[in-house]
Amino acid sequence: MKHDELSPAEQDALDAAAFRQLLAHLGRRTDVQNIDLMILADFCRNCLSKWYRAAAEERGLDVSDDDARERVYGMPYADWKAQFQTPATPEQLAAMEGRKR
Question: Which intervals hold domain SMc04008-like (predicted)?
Fold first, then answer.
């Protein structure tokens, strides 16, 4: 079946399944830091949580930043940071600075 042959409901279901898989993958890859994602892909877990909150807002749903982050991180953001976030290396900081040019 081609993409353009899917109904809107089928497309939404596939999009949602792919998003859940992305969250599960990121949940398993806690070794991958947000700065690495930003350097390589120009988005990170925080971006996903902002997009999630914006999608809720577009649909008239009240989802806070904290709730959106918890959905993406699988736990409160402060807990994730304490358990998994490491200080940025000089190389990571330089790569981020290089992206701004």
Answer: 32-97
